[in-house]
Amino acid sequence: MTSQTDGYSIITQGLTKRFGDLVAVDGLDLAVREGEFFGFLGPNGAGKSTTIKMLCGLLRPNAGRMVVAGYDAATHPLEVKRNIGVLPEEIALYERLTGEEFLVFAARMHGLPLEEARRRCEELLDLLELTEARGKLIVDYSMGMKKKTAFAAALIHRPKVMFLDEPFNGIDPVSVRAIRNVLRHLTERGTTIFFTTHVMEVVERLCTRVAVINRGKIVGDGNLAELRAKAEAGADSSLEDIFLKLVEARVDEETLSWL
Amino acid sequence: MNKQQLAQVRLLLWLKVKLVWRLYTRNTSALVGTIIAVVLFLPFSLGIGVACYFGFRLLEPPLNVQLLRAVLVGAYLMWLFSPVLGFALTEEYDLAKLLLYPVSPRVMVTAAILSSVVDLGVILLLPTLLAAVVGFTRNLATFAMTALAVALLLFHTVGVTEVLRLSLWGVLRSRRGRDVLMILGGMIAFGFAAAIQILPRRAIDVNWSRLLSGGMWNVLDYSPPGFAARAVGAATDGHYLVGLLLLLALAALAAGTVWVEGWLVHLIHAGEVITGKVARPAAAKKRPVRRRRPREAALRSPRLSIRLPAVVEAVASKDAKYLVRDPYFKFSLMGALYLTVIFLAMFLWHPGPRHGELFPIGEWMVWAFPLFLLMMQAQFAFNIFGLEGPAVSLLFAFPSNRKQILIGKNLPVFVALVCITSVFTLLFCVVVGSLVVFPAIVLWIALATVMLISVGNLTSMWAPMRVVMRGWRMQVQSSGRSMFQGLVSLVMLGIAGLLSLPVVGGLLIPVRWLGAWWLALTIPLVVAYTAACYVVSLHLAEGELARRDVEIIEKLSETD
What we know:
Chain A has helices spanning 48-55, 77-83, 99-109, 114-127, 143-155, 173-188, 200-206, 224-231, 239-246, and strands spanning 8-19, 22-33, 37-41, 63-68, 71-72, 84-87, 161-165, 192-196, 209-214, 217-222. By secondary structure, chain A is α/β, with parallel strands linked by helices. At the A-B interface, helix 1, helix 2 and helix 3 of A face helix 1 and helix 4 of B.
């Protein structure tokens, strides 16, 4: 790739996605550096998941350019997939496999030798406290266990970029702590994390940079101080306050008449 | 294909075998359904295979090759039409789930086609294909060429079926597309039924021998099954070079099919749709909310004229909307129309004597006709939670009286079935000239519907099935499960028929033999009998629902 992409894991230029008359993502320009823990925030229907799907090659944009992990996603989709790990919003697992079988399958699909796939699978099951359930079919897992399995599958090939859509939803605090540690460890080693959540506290604690999307457009991008300045919020305002200002949310006192 | 891609194909074959195996080991109804399908269809499949073998062996050339061509064309067309009818003869794993991995669409497609050998549709085709290989083998060369021709054709056929299914993806998912297919499918069915009635009765003079010996059939030589048959024929005649050239053409077609299917997979899944749901986020437009005043709202909200308990009214009104919006309802209407036309055609062809109060055939038909219509629509009554899908957990989460929920579900089904059946029966009675018995028939329809619903309530508890429309048929997640469901429905339909005998007796015997005034005595009796059956069924179903609600939720939330 060109020198323009050096040092960046994700670059989008004029990325646009339309569904009929609705413009879900409207000329998105993003640049995420290698090793960055990047938070992608926005209200429901703002275009977060659509953006992630396009970056992962699961949805074709109507216009614009995307470079992910050094590869143009339009011309080298398989190279992009080889270098990314995805935890999608709607978890897609082969539920009639056991957790262990599925993780080995995912690793082998990424070309890992069988022995290495098994070794990594062991470690991931242990880390995510799935060892006891390793022989159970995924269909019998709880939602949290399924999410942890999907996370493990996204991680097992050690991707350069990870896309995590609401990764901590439905996961117990012990596993959340373990996953956070893994993610921190990954970013220290140069892996880029691109993740969405509605939990502002998690974003404040983990992210080095944040972008806020609203109605398909970026309305704020930077670290907490930069966002505060952009939103013209007070010095002690929280990320939640900044977010509400940026998305022009209605916070009036109106309530339901029958309450 | 490089080494990595071959490894991925092997891995996907392993995945398919594992998923199919687990489907049967984990799901008893799927296993039972598949065993029933094998028991029912395998003898036919083996019979066709054996008959073909003797045909290939005993017929003189070129007749044996023409037979092979006809058999292969028949199988090919059957497979080609299956996606249009909504059938999936192969049960592939969800390709959308594979899009997260660095696997090319061609690898996915190749693995899906190769792995279809464990699907029932392919297994049932194998005896015929095997008969071709054994029947045309004269030496090692003919064996190799015949086996290759059959294998390439099978590969191409499975592939092209998937191409059609993928091409129709959008059409089958759109309401308008489904409506068009319903009309189209119904017209084909109607045309077939009309042909069955007309051709054997020599209504149209067809010179069959001239038709079958016509040169137009040679056009089929240029179709994929024609290539395969000609390659086999050339090999048995010793023209190996011609045979090889035809095999090359077939191989090119098979490769082309993989290419097109791979392109379609990329276009459909990676382009617009993922995990089977249209990825269309809701518009985040702010619209001013206009609050209706209570009086205005009360005037506009749909309300049943009869005062019903709130739960019954809520469930009935929800289910009525579901029914009207469900494509299966439209399908049912179309089916009723076609059945009426077919029955009328049968009657008009054999009208019987034109004198007398009622025509002999028409007299019986007016009583039998509504039964056929009701049987066609029995699925509405036999699977009352089917349209709910996973949302049934929400329905059961409400602390509502279970009996009221059941009544609420039964009401719209009763109204829909009685209305549809009565309207078409009226049409039939007018043409047949039996309008005089129509009021009694309407009562018969209403009581038979209540009986169907009574039995259906219990069937819905014991064999719930998630309703998914595929083309113009209803389908559960796997063919095995739908086979099991079909068997249960058939048994319960028989029980409903037996329970309805006193009802039809109570109405038909006075009308036909005793005299209409007897109806004054029999009608209250049959109404009381039917009402008692419904009350008993409601009581039993309520108990079953309390016991089996968790199992019902599980069954309706299952995905393969």
